[in-house]
Write a structure and sequence with these properties.
The structure is a single chain. The chain is α+β, with helices and mostly antiparallel strands and 492 residues long. It is 44% helix and 9% strand. It folds into 2 domains: 11-21 and 31-124 and 320-372, 2-Layer Sandwich (Uridine Diphospho-n-acetylenolpyruvylglucosamine Reductase, domain 2), CATH 3.30.43; 131-315 and 375-492, Cytochrome p450 (Orthogonal Bundle). The protein contains 19 helices and 13 strands. A 6-stranded mixed sheet has the order 1-2-3-9-6-4. The protein starts with 41 loop residues before the first strand and ends in a 6-residue tail after the last helix.
Length: 492
């Protein structure tokens, strides 16, 4: 139950960060390892990295141990942390490895300009995930305190309701594509409710988020819609606070967040929850459908669905790496000499299969939550329990409603898209015995029954304030950030 074979993977690479052109036949350089850069350092981008990231991590581990020198876009040198213990060391000691990218020596030296492929994920922003110390405690404290106030049973009721509505949309057809018709919709539908948005906002915001992430022709309009909707929501809650929604809790928090800080963190929470939870749902469903041992363990009661989720979080974490940390001074890690200003990438997927803690990857890890899927230390994902609840409850509802769910194509036809930070299953076509949906249920589900490839939101009918009342959104950074996380490079 490990990561699927690399020959099933496809990748979309940044056009501005493409690997060097393949030499023509007869050229002396033909046949050289194009994954190697200057001084024989392996590139963490390009065809090899995109097609088989786990294979590349194991090459690096064999060559360098728990911390390996790598090249990122532009052939900038960095360190990839491969060891489980070393990843935790980096994540837990911000005094040595800061989240503040302004410490990056290459950025200080002018090697990472606004047009550099890494700028979207590395350029400093006034968000909790870019700061340490007191300011981090202030910003993150408001987010974590708000998330902690949710009643888990209430969250699961939302998940069950929306999962049933989504299933109603395709149950009678006897076939579905579970990435676009289920996994990508459920997290956002639930999150819009937790944020306290009016019911009618849910489907449109889901469309907008999916549209922006996929980088369609209307992606920028979708980004504008999300910004406008969130800003309007903050304004409404300022005027009339609610009792049980995340926005109201952020507003009333003692941290004293400004409206801009609230809006930006809402967007960060929404997009992060969307991406990671959708990946977790898709990866778990693929494992259930393709690994007979996995499904047999579930059916036989030897594994619970929460156990299955944790197994997937070990084997196929939603994010493969996290960029980055920056050394605050000269130090040593995993036998490597790290200089002040060096960039380090947390190797979540590589650390999860570190032979030091998992010498036999076929042995189940039921009940063990010591994986790196949600990071660690002060920047550990604050919404992980909500993400688990959405995935667990949603998948359970799907398997109960459609017990004979099965893959509709040979497993080798499944494909992925890769980026520096993640690996996404593109589609998961399934078939099952058609189920007749009661008329009452079908009528309730129409608000979230969406086509496989939905069009972007209609800007004319978007329930947002007039454009002249809104400051212009920083669409460049957010659009580029989403482009980087998803590996979809056509969002301009």
């Amino acid at each position: 139950m490990t990561t699927p074979p690399p020959d099933h993977a496809t990748a979309e690479l940044p056009s501005s960060a493409a690997s060097p052109a393949t030499p023509p036949p007869g050229c002396p350089a033909h046949g050289l390892d194009q994954g190697l850069g200057p001084d024989g350092i392996r590139r963490l981008y390009g065809p090899e990295a995109a097609a088989d990231p786990m294979g590349l991590y194991e090459k690096l581990r064999a060559e360098h141990g728990t911390v390996a020198p790598v090249l990122v876009q532009g052939d900038l040198q960095a360190w990839l942390v491969l060891g489980h213990r070393e990843n935790l060391d980096v994540a837990r000691t911000p005094s040595r490895f800061s989240r503040d990218s302004r410490r990056w020596r290459d950025m200080q030296d002018g090697k990472v300009g606004a047009d550099h492929p890494l700028a979207p994920v590395a350029a400093w922003q006034p968000l909790c995930n870019f700061v340490d110390g007191v300011e981090h405690e202030r910003l993150r404290g408001a987010v974590t305190d708000g998330l902690a106030r949710f009643d888990r049973r209430g969250v699961r009721r939302y998940v069950t309701r929306f999962a049933d509505q989504l299933i109603d949309g395709f149950a009678a057809a006897g076939q579905a594509e579970l990435v676009s018709q289920f996994a990508e919709h459920l997290p956002m539908l639930v999150m819009t409710q937790l944020l306290g948005m009016p019911e009618e906002y849910g489907p449109r915001l889901v469309d907008a988020a999916r549209d922006m992430v996929k980088g369609t022709a209307t992606a920028l309009a979708s980004n504008d819609y999300i910004v406008a909707t969130l800003r309007q929501l903050v304004e409404r809650r300022r005027a009339a606070p609610g009792d049980d929604d995340f926005v109201s809790w952020l507003i009333e928090h003692s941290a004293g967040l400004t409206d801009d800080e609230i809006m930006e963190h809402l967007r960060l929470v929404l997009i992060t929850a969307f991406e990671t939870t959708a990946n977790l749902i898709a990866n778990t469903l693929r494992m259930v459908l393709t690994d007979q041992r996995f499904r047999a363990s579930l059916a036989g009661g030897r594994m619970t669905l929460p156990d299955a989720l944790e197994q997937v979080l070990w084997d196929e974490p939603p994010l493969t790496t996290i960029l980055g940390r920056w050394a605050t001074g000269d130090t040593e890690l995993g036998g490597q000499q790290i200089r002040a200003g060096d960039m380090l990438l947390l190797g979540l997927a590589a650390g999860n299969v570190d032979p030091a803690i998992r010498p036999d990857l076929t042995v189940p890890v039921h009940g063990n939550r010591s994986h790196l899927a949600f990071g660690g230390g002060p920047h550990e994902c604050p919404g992980q329990d909500i993400g688990r609840a959405i995935a667990d409850t949603g998948i359970d509802a799907l398997l109960v409603r459609l017990p004979d769910l099965r893959l509709a194509v040979p497993e080798h036809e499944l494909s992925w898209v890769s980026s520096l930070m993640s690996r996404h299953l593109i589609a998961l076509p399934v078939e099952f015995t058609p189920v007749r949906v009661k008329q009452a249920a079908a009528s309730e589900s129409t608000s979230v029954t969406l086509p496989v490839q939905p069009a972007g939101p209609d800007p004319v009918s978007a329930p947002a304030p007039a454009s002249d009342q809104l400051p212009r959104p920083r669409r460049g950074w957010w659009s580029a950030l989403v482009r980087w996380v998803t590996g979809r490079q056509d969002l301009e």
